[in-house]
Structures are given as structure tokens and as C-alpha cells.
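C-alpha cells for Xyloglucan fucosyltransferase/Nodulation protein Z (NodZ). Go.
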Amino acid sequence: MTNYIVVKGTSGIGNRVFAVATGILYAQLSGRQLVVDWRDGSYSNSGTNLFFRYFDCPVAQSVEVLPATDSIYPTHWQNKLNRSLGSVINESGLSCYKDLSFDVSRLDYTETIIVLSAYTHKIGFMRPLFTGSASRFASMNNLEILQLVLQSNLSLKEDIRLQVEEFKREYFADYMIGVHIRYSDMKVPLSEVESSLASIIRSVKSKHPNYKIFVATDSQEVLSSFKQKFPVIISTNKWFSASGKRLHQNPEECEDLIQNGIEALVDLDLLAACDELLFASRSSFGLLSSMLMDKPQAIRHDIDTQKPLIKRVQLKLKNLAKKLKIGG
């Protein structure tokens, strides 16, 4: 009899991919069949499972394989597996993801179906499982494990990959500096991005005078500003919110949610194809793009880790307060 782990999609592309990576590793360690469910409507209004429109993942199957059963953990998901995480949270009054997710540090669940609900990876919580045949993971840090899992099991659909390759052939230079700027709902300090980028350019231009800068951002205003200040910037042609809201989970403004996801994935892969990348790891999208860089000499510049320790702690507390809705 087959047992299953279902990974529910939530939030943006980066969040979702990190959750899937957790599911892939847990499925390998537990012997369960991985099922990915991205029918929540963030990238489609039709109820389509968009994970399989965007990715090839040989170890994952879609929800159609799930049996009809009440043997589900957490029990909040009984008779609700076809629902989105957000709708179940709203209906149940639960305030935490953990109430709708199993504990990834355990392998002893007897239920046929266990559900993972997470907005980021849970690799750190899985460390008690890294024994015996899985002991090779014990000496690796979380990001190394994620990188290994994703690069071994996940790839873009061919049509999306071809869009990436076409853009690279037409616009990329011999040396590329990638910049990711999340600004709509998670404002990265632009002055820090500008000063860091200027520093990178000073170190690059003597060796690579024909360099270019690829910028991926969720703000058309930020993109226009950077193009005025750094004339060698290139970017993809994509949809922006006229009101300045975030690009994902914005069905009120975005007319083609599926294309919105494809545009995000193209940007993600182009960032990962650069020789150097400037990003802020507070953004799952920026962090994911840095992990997917596969050039041996790739250089990563994380604005958040460049801050003094006290500022990093203050930033984490500020972001935590936002999630918990503490303060004004």
C-alpha cells in the first residue's frame, strides 16, 4: 500500500519551491510518494495544478493519485484536501501553519496521507532524521542540502527553459551581474542596493569592460530608476502592477496569472545564470535564485548578511512582527 506526502502551495514562487524541496527530501527519507498541490489560485483561476505546468519533477505526482480516505494527518484536512491552505485557515480560525502540517522531524506517521503546509523550507527541523543512510546530509548546511535536492530533482518545463535561453542569446554579455530587488511588499533599501552594485561594478569593469546588468524586480518605478543610473541594465518584458502591489497573488489586477508565474520563473533562471548576483535573502525568490547559480566561479552578494549583526537581528524581529501583526 502506498503512503503519500502532500505539499500544499502557498505564497510566491520562492516559498513554494522551498516547501517542495522539503517534501522531496522527506519523501526520500520516508518512502512516501510525493504529491504537489498548487491548485490554490495564486497563479491560476481555473483550479489547475500549476506545479506541473511550470516544472518537470520525476519524483512528484499530482493529486489525482490520492486515494479516497479519512486516514489523513493533520485531521483538519479530512474531506478538505481539494481546498487551498488559505481557505482552510480562514474557515478553521487557525492562525499557524503548523496546525495544518505534520512534524517533519518524525517518520512514524501511520496515516495514509500526511500534509505539509509551509511558506519556506523545513530542512533544519529534519536534522534528527539525518542518520544511517541519510547521514551524508548531517555535515551539510541547510542551503547546501536545498541546492542538492533542487538541482537533482527539479527543472523548468522546456518551453520556459527555451524562453530563458533565447533571452540569454539575444541580450546577455560575456559577463553578467544579476540584481534582484523585491520592493512592492518587502522593501529592500534602494540606497544599499545602489551602493553595493556600484562597488561590484568597480571591481568588474576593468576585467570585463563589456559587462551587463540584469535586473529582476517587482517595481516598474525601481526598474526605471536603475536604468537611468546604470545604463547597461537589461530586463525582461513582463507585467507590472499599476498600483505598485506585489506581482504574485494579485488576481484583481493581473489578467493572466499563469503567464505571471512563467515570467517570474524566467527572471529566476536568468538571475541564476549570472556570474555575480546581488540579492537580499529576506526574499525567498532572491535566495532561491542565488542557490540555483551553478557556475563554478559564481559570486553571491547578500545585502542582508552584509549588515552588522545588530541590524540583522532588528530586521528579523521586524519581519517577524509583520507576520504576527504586532504593532501598527
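The chain has two domains: 4-156, 158-324.
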